[in-house]
Predict the 3D structure of the following.
Amino acid sequence: MKVELLDRTKKKKIIDLLEENYGIEKIPYLLIKTGKEKIRAYSGNLSWDELNKLGKTVNVELIGIRLCSVIDESIRINFDIENMPVIKEQMNKNIVEIDDEQITEWLKGKNLNISTDLKAQFVLIKNKGDFYGVGSNRKTFLQNYIPKERRVKN
């Protein structure tokens, strides 16, 4: 597995994408790229050099928390990161507010038949002030990305 610690320039590109898509302007963590598209946020006590040495000797796929995935020129924020206060407080763009009936369907893993004029490929799903995940904006419906293990059973 290729692991890359992102320098300031690469981190800025990720933050620019996050700001454009979700309104997130600051990430106070080290960013680590694993694989082709996964970006992780790390806030531990290891320095950049220590992480670099560690990355060369062991698999650091599990260090930090998964922040997002960069897919082509789009960015999909990870559901777990939405619960971090420093990130959640900044999210203010490309949000689709859904009602109680729709959130029940969403949590079961169903797509929602909602038309949206938002231009972003990935949108945040929100109900009564709480974020519930990210959906793919297909213009005529929202595609659900909740993993099967997190879905509400019927």
